[in-house]
């Protein structure tokens, strides 16, 4: 009976979750036309692809990352694809003053903001055993977590006014522990805790800003493949589709999105009903022999 309940309740939960998520699948590009959107980490990878999708949807774009030359190219392409406007601001999110500078730029340019897409990550330290380097973790938390909080804080007045959306790009590593990514995983778990708490407060205070947490698996961006392809088995999912799914989930004001959906839903279901079994599957999916100590 106990085991039955242990399996039945999560299965029922998954079925209900599937029903609610798929029931609201009525995305249309019109929802984003003319909207004012900030995308962080937009010079490459998933962020760059989001910028191109949003450009086709005729949004106003403010893109940010560190590398100016790459941002210039992305902005140019966005304008060719039909963006209502596109601009960039370059800088590093490990500078505590930079998040506010980005948001101010949006305020000066548009006088408001509809969607804040937080996507950047400092750097993949790479897959490795935790080496005890606390300074590295501090820096990573500044870029991957605190800058998200700082951008959100600065953008709140404009998002309240527009009843806008916050989209936070996270990872399976922020939901289930995996080996060799302890600092990265910690920064993603922190996002989960912070934004789930903030969402409660918005609802209690009747603040109509949606918060969407995007839980991603292995995606074929250059940096991810460079960092992990020698260690992880399996085929990465396409970044273009991933980027579109993130945008859709934000426009639909979903609580969470999963990409690729079934792999992640299955993994999280297993985490809840048989965590040790999941841990052993995770461990056996790594080519540990390819890791440097
Ligand atoms: P990516 O290709 O490495 O892109 C990272 C972006 O962040 C780049 O635009 C980079 O541009 C920018 N960035 C790096 N350091 C920065 C800093 N200090 N300040 C400001 N911007 C900085 O990464 P991705 O694979 O597309 O990942 C995007 C998001 O998806 C991340 O949140 C990641 O955790 C999540 N995710 C990815 C995967 C995957 O397999 N790809 C899996 C799970 C979750 P500059 O270098 O020019 O600054």
Automatic annotation (TrEMBL):
<dbReference type="InterPro" id="IPR002347">
    <property type="entry name" value="SDR_fam"/>
</dbReference>
<dbReference type="GO" id="GO:0005789">
    <property type="term" value="C:endoplasmic reticulum membrane"/>
</dbReference>
<keyword id="KW-1133">Transmembrane helix</keyword>
<comment type="similarity">
    <text>Belongs to the short-chain dehydrogenases/reductases (SDR) family.</text>
</comment>
<dbReference type="GO" id="GO:0005496">
    <property type="term" value="F:steroid binding"/>
</dbReference>
<feature type="signal peptide">
    <location>
        <begin position="1"/>
        <end position="17"/>
    </location>
</feature>
<keyword id="KW-0560">Oxidoreductase</keyword>
<dbReference type="GO" id="GO:0070524">
    <property type="term" value="F:11-beta-hydroxysteroid dehydrogenase (NADP+) activity"/>
</dbReference>
<keyword id="KW-0812">Transmembrane</keyword>
<keyword id="KW-0472">Membrane</keyword>
<dbReference type="InterPro" id="IPR020904">
    <property type="entry name" value="Sc_DH/Rdtase_CS"/>
</dbReference>
<dbReference type="Pfam" id="PF00106">
    <property type="entry name" value="adh_short"/>
</dbReference>
<dbReference type="GO" id="GO:0006706">
    <property type="term" value="P:steroid catabolic process"/>
</dbReference>
<dbReference type="InterPro" id="IPR051253">
    <property type="entry name" value="11-beta-HSD"/>
</dbReference>
<dbReference type="InterPro" id="IPR036291">
    <property type="entry name" value="NAD(P)-bd_dom_sf"/>
</dbReference>
<dbReference type="GO" id="GO:0047022">
    <property type="term" value="F:7-beta-hydroxysteroid dehydrogenase (NADP+) activity"/>
</dbReference>
<comment type="subunit">
    <text>Homodimer.</text>
</comment>
<keyword id="KW-0732">Signal</keyword>
<keyword id="KW-0256">Endoplasmic reticulum</keyword>
<protein>
    <recommendedName>
        <fullName>11-beta-hydroxysteroid dehydrogenase 1</fullName>
        <ecNumber>1.1.1.146</ecNumber>
        <ecNumber>1.1.1.201</ecNumber>
    </recommendedName>
</protein>
């Amino acid at each position: 009976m106990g085991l039955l309940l242990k399996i039945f309740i999560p299965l029922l939960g998954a079925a209900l979750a599937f029903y609610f998520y798929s029931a609201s699948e009525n995305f249309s590009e019109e929802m984003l036309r003319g909207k004012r959107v900030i995308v962080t980490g937009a010079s490459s990878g998933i962020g760059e692809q989001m910028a191109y999708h949003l450009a086709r949807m005729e949004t106003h774009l403010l893109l940010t990352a560190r590398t100016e030359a790459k941002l210039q190219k992305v902005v140019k392409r966005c304008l060719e694809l039909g963006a209502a406007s596109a601009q960039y601001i370059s800088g590093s999110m490990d500078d505590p003053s930079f998040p506010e500078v980005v948001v101010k730029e949006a305020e000066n340019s548009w006088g408001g903001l509809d969607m804040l897409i937080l996507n950047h990550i400092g750097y993949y330290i790479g897959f490795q055993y935790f080496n005890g380097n606390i300074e590295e973790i501090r820096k990573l938390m500044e870029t991957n977590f605190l800058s998200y909080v700082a951008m959100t804080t600065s953008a709140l007045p404009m998002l309240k006014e527009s009843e806008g959306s916050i989209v936070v790009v996270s990872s399976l590593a922020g939901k289930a522990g995996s080996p060799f990514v302890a600092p990265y995983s910690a920064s993603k778990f922190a996002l989960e805790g912070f934004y789930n708490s903030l969402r409660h407060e918005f609802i209690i205070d009747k603040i109509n800003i949606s918060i969407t947490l995007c839980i991603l698996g292995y995606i074929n961006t250059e940096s991810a493949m460079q960092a992990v392809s020698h260690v992880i088995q399996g085929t990465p999912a396409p970044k273009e589709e991933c980027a579109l799914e993130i945008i859709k989930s934000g426009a639909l004001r979903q609580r969470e999105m999963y990409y690729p959906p079934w792999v992640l839903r299955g993994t999280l279901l297993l985490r809840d009903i048989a965590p040790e079994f999941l841990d052993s599957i995770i461990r056996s999916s790594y080519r540990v022999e390819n890791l440097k100590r």
